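Quick one - inputs below.
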Amino acid sequence: MFVTISTTGTAGNPATDLGYLLHKHPDKAQAFSTSYGTAHVFYPEADAERCAAALLLETDTLALVRRGKGKGRGGAPDAALAQYVNDRPYAASSLLAVALSTVFSSALRGVCDARPERAAAPLPLRVEVPALPARGGAGLVHRLFAPLGWTVTADPVPLDTAFPEWGDSRYVRLVLESDRLTLAEALRHLYVLLPVLDDAKHYWVSADEVDKLLRAGEGWLAGHPEQQLITSRYLSRRWSLTRQARERLELVRLAEADDSEVEDIDNAVAEETEAEEKPTPLAEQRRAAILTALHASDAARVLDLGCGQGQLVRALLKDARFTEIVGVDVSVRALAIAERRLRLDRMGERQAARVRLVQGSLAYADNRLKGYDAAVLSEVIEHLDLPRLPALEYAVFGHARPRTVVVTTPNVEYNVRWESLPAGHARHGDHRFEWTREEFRAWAATVAGRHGYDVGFVPVGPDDPEVGPPTQMAVFHRDDTEKEAKAA
Ligand code: SAH
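Output:
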């Protein structure tokens, strides 16, 4: 069982950096013992122009048989093991995937302290597996790898070259090439898809396999056209696990779709309501209104609460007035996208020092959010269930207590102006409520009164004489000089 991963170098980026990324030194051949035998890592080629790392798994047939005893379904010896005992030893299979994850565990997670910037960046990669068991043949190999950005060559291996009339074996010689992927992404593709192609798991599939699959599939599995086949095969067709995985992937997909839906809707609203040649999308108008409010309040250190994929964080970064910007969101996935889009990893040191993304829930008081000049809640409150709203209110206005708080939310009255929206429907699948101007003002006034803020209202988008603007914005302000004077 054998796989090679190679890359080419450019000026300033020697190919041998691969050794750092894999956490394995190119000058040394190393051996690691795994549950199924010994994994060897060595570099057939290692210079500044080209570097190739090879992983060879020498399976220990006896260990496999011993492990197999009592590990199969219902305690019976695992019948699937038989093929590993018989299999040609150089075939890649799910055992190789396990070895990959054991030997290259940090690389799989994209961790590289020595070359963090290279670990985060795509690099020219070539992966070769000389004998890959592939149920479904070369066609399926293409369908699995091509959508992920690989150029795929999958040549069927004849059963016996001396007897071409016997036809092809179930193996293909696989070559994958791409310069669009990071090494971690590439390893995660292999980790999931090698066993999927092998389609014969050698160990009992337990519930934590769903977690492993989703972790390795983060960022690519939810949108993969063969997602159903991948989850079903990866989880050895265990229906309850497969369903669990699909449900969780569906949530990921919906979250992604929701985000693009928001932009679509915003664009639609702006296009419909503005006769200008090139309408400004509502999301952009919202960001402009927020920036104006922040400027007026002289804020320098700003929290973007529920920052999502970081569009406002990006706008804040462009403005030197804001010296510290913290994006907070409950969604790890949204934060990962924000991090990638903002290119935090490639930012200069001074820029990077201005910005931070942190995961946290706004439904809990959080000391990390104390001491800022301003907080923004842009299109966030309507994502909370109404009974949770007082918790957010306390966390922001009662506990964090920035001098200024800017809150935007849709104005439900405006929905009648929006043709494609069926009457009585919220704009966004995940909106738990949408308020009229009256309702929003009443809520804001209560919050301001309770926590010692003043509040004013600003329309965002075209202010319709009858139904008002599509977005309503409240700007809360707390005058702390009074309190300080008292304290003095
Ligand atoms: N502020 C962004 C994103 C709005 S979408 C914009 O204006 O475009 C709402 C965001 O709030 C989502 O990213 C969601 O993950 C986040 N969110 C919802 N409930 C939250 C909570 N309890 N704590 C923190 N973030 C939350």
